[in-house]
Amino acid sequence: xxxxxxxxxxxxxxxxxxxxxxxxxxxxxxxxxxxxxxxxxxxxxxxxxxxxxxxxxxxxxxxxxxxxxxxxxxxxxxxxxxxxxxxxxxxxxxxxx
Length: 97
Prior knowledge:
about 100 residues
């Protein structure tokens, strides 16, 4: 005859291993989540760097679509250099049309 207390009871070491596996799975989930968050943060920083020159650029405030397209083209080919070397010329093109 079996003792009623032993029915459907897992040995201690088995329960312990199961808890340990669960903690490991939880740590892995947390680790993946932290990595995803770091990746999102890197992406945000990368986007900030891309747009940082346009934030200080006077051309970023242009409302006209043609002007915005020209400004975007300038940003694609190094906005700062173009604005320094062709700033006056572009100013007349963009604002005096």
